[in-house]
Specification:
InterPro entries: G_ERA_dom, GTP-bd, GTPase_Era-like, KH_dom-like_a/b, KH_dom_type_2, KH_sf_prok-type, P-loop_NTPase, Small_GTP-bd. This is GTPase Era. Its main location: cytoplasm. This protein is an alpha/beta fold and about 290 residues long. The chain has two domains: about 5-170, Rossmann fold (3-Layer(aba) Sandwich); about 185-290, GMP Synthetase, Chain A, domain 3 (2-Layer Sandwich). The protein has nine helices and nine strands. The strands form two sheets. It has a six-stranded mixed beta sheet, sandwiched between helices. Strands 7-8-9 form a three-stranded mixed beta sheet. Helix 6 (about 185-200) packs across helix 8.
């Protein structure tokens, strides 16, 4: 009988390299929201993949940036924690990328005592010659890392990387119940789904000034009733978010409901409200309330 393997596999990289797409490909569920905008992921999200003789705990972290305000500092704290408990580190880059936006993080990868798999993503958008140059570039920078070309979007080489992860994991009992998919509660995924639709439907500063709080999540046998509040920092943002006669907010609600009905496999009724919460991104108290700052 095979011995059981279990461990933490933490995914880091710059914004927009496809970390969330890879995480969702591994888990087989849409746990991390995906948009083309930077800073889509704000929290550290665990996705748990279980087999008879393994448990892989994947961790998707925010993209590495130089923080400009308190929220971004808290986001980078989630990245720092990813170095502390990893059994395997996945460092994701994309074609044409030269290095991390934070030199200190790169030094940590360079000096890592744990296995590092460097994943060159989005190879479906590149020619073979450029890919070979990229691999040589990264081999010279991180000679100890294993390099794997992948396309998370097209699912190319994803299963091979997962098999390699299983080989590298230590023998250990499962850390979480075998039927558990993530460490986050249902309300978290409601909040993230609504925030994803805001990222997709609004421009400029609106998506970055938004935080979502689900005040009510009532589940009956055939329907889930949800009431969520969207926080913004200014009255002008509130007006833009609601739109003419509520049309823009209604669109967000319709799109979020469709995704949540797929996620929960149940009918969903959702009510959305918008409130002004001035300068919440710079308030330590408000950030704690929304699950940042530990």
């Amino acid at each position: 009988m095979k011995k059981h393997k279990a461990g933490f596999v933490n995914i880091i990289g710059n914004p927009n390299v496809g970390k969330s797409t890879l995480m969702n490909a591994f888990v087989g569920e849409k746990l991390s929201i995906i948009t083309s905008k930077a800073q889509t992921t704000r929290h550290r999200i665990l996705g748990i993949v279980n087999g008879n003789d393994f448990q892989v705990i994947l961790s998707d972290t925010p993209g590495i940036i130089k923080p400009a305000y308190e929220l971004q500092t808290s986001m980078m704290d989630f990245v720092k924690s990813a170095f502390e408990d990893a059994d395997v580190l996945l460092y994701m880059v994309e074609i044409g990328e030269k290095g991390l936006k934070d030199e200190a993080f790169f030094k940590k990868i360079e000096n890592s005592k744990i296995p590092v798999l460097l994943l060159v993503n989005k190879i479906d958008t590149s020619e073979q010659e450029i890919l070979e140059q990229q691999i040589q570039h990264w081999q010279s920078l991180l000679p100890k890392a294993e390099i794997h070309p992948i396309s998370a979007l097209e699912n190319f080489n994803v299963s091979e990387v997962f098999e390699r992860i299983l080989e590298l994991l230590p023998e250990a009992p499962p850390y979480y119940p075998k039927d558990q998919l993530t460490d986050k509660p249902e309300r978290f995924f409601v909040n993230e789904t609504i925030r994803e639709k805001i990222l997709l439907n609004y421009k400029k500063e609106i998506p970055y000034a938004v935080e979502v709080e689900t005040e009510e999540f009532l589940e009956d046998t055939d329907i889930i009733r949800i009431r969520s509040v969207i926080m913004v920092e200014r009255d002008t943002q509130k007006g833009i978010l609601i739109g003419h006669k509520g049309s823009a907010l209604k669109k967000v609600g319709v799109q979020a409901r469709a995704d949540l009905e797929k996620f929960f496999d149940k009918q969903v009724h959702i009510e959305l409200y918008v409130k002004v919460n001035k300068n919440w991104r710079s308030s330590a108290q408000q950030l704690r309330r929304f699950g940042y700052n530990g």
